[in-house]
Write a structure and sequence with these properties.
This protein is an alpha+beta fold and about 150 residues long. The protein contains 4 helices and 8 strands; from the N terminus they run H-H-E-E-E-H-E-E-E-E-H-E. The protein has one domain (about 5-150). It is globular, with a radius of gyration of 16 Å.
């Protein structure tokens, strides 16, 4: 293992940073209307993404969001998602030319400051998003437009 690879392993990830360090990482993100993520499904049924440039590695979708991703994958592919399933997901605060679904902001999570609940307009299911969303937009938009493309 090279010295650079060894140093990379020692770097703290997003949730290991202090609040002040996370604020600096968030501030380093450009002000974009849309973000694109490479999502992959794990063996345990959870979906995850990584964005090393923002110290994010294997960030999990939880709180119902993983079930919505399964539903989207199934509706687009007509097969159940498994550990080999991947999607490119674009999340936007402005309407997209092609939308898979829309998330509508519902409320803050009082038990987890910075976390929010959303309604998926296609499945009717509730999604929970962590404060990581602040890296993209702070404050969060009232609507998020989602476009998904199956990559495997």
């Amino acid at each position: 293992m090279s010295a650079k690879e060894n140093t990379t392993l020692l770097e703290p990830t997003y949730w290991q940073l202090t609040d002040a360090e996370r604020e600096l990482v968030n501030a380093s993100a450009p002000d974009l209307d849309q973000w694109t993520f490479q999502m992959e499904r794990r063996d345990d049924g959870m979906w995850q993404f990584s964005m090393p440039e923002y110290k994010t590695k294997n960030e999990l979708l939880v709180g119902g969001t993983e079930q919505i991703m399964d539903d989207i994958y199934r509706s687009m592919s007509e097969v159940k998602a498994d550990r080999y399933s991947t999607m490119e997901v674009t999340v936007s605060r402005i309407p997209l030319e092609e939308e898979t679904t829309t998330l509508t902001w519902l409320k803050e999570d009082r038990k987890n400051p910075g976390s929010t609940y959303w309604l998926d307009e296609v499945t009717g299911k509730q999604a929970w998003l962590s404060p990581w969303l602040k890296l993209c937009w702070d404050p969060a938009p009232e609507l998020m437009y989602i476009h998904c493309e199956i990559t495997s």
